[in-house]
Amino acid sequence: MFRSTIKTACSKRFQSTLNLQSELQRIQKAKYLKDTNTKEIFPATAKPSASIFPKIESIDPSKDLQTKPFNNTVLGSYYISKTTTGRLPVYSEIRRGQVRETVIRRIEGDVVLLKKDLLKALPVLHEDEVKVLQESKKIVIRGDYVGAVRNVLRKVL
What are 124-149's pLDDT values in tens digits? Predict the structure, then answer.
C-alpha cells in the first residue's frame, strides 16, 4: 500500500511537471511569434490531414489501375509485356552444359493458349519440346528458336 501511494504521488508530480513544461513551451512560442511578427502555419489545435494515398471510395478501377488488353480477338486471353527497353522477353539459355533452350517470360493470362498458338504458328516445333511453367508464367522450348518466336510475337503484338 505504501508503494502504491508513492507511485501515485510520483506520477502526479511527474504529470504536473510535464504540464508545466508544455505550458512554458506554449508561452515561449507565443512570445517568439509576437517578437518576430510571424504567424503559425499550423495552429496547435489543427493538425494537417494531407495524405499521399487516395481513399478507397475514390478509386475507380477502370481509370486508375493499369489494365492490360486481355480477351483481344487477335491475342486471345494472354498478353506479353515488353521489357523496360521495349523488347520482347524471349531469351536463349544454355542448360546442363550444352542444351539450348528458348524461354518466353512476362506472360500474363492463359499460358497454355499461348503455347497452342505458338505450335500452330511454328510448325517446326513439336508438342514434347514445349513446356509450360504455370507458377512462373513461362514457356520453355527445347532448342534455339529465339528469332522465330520473336517474329511470330511481333506479328501478333
Answer: 999 999 999 999 999 999 999 999 99
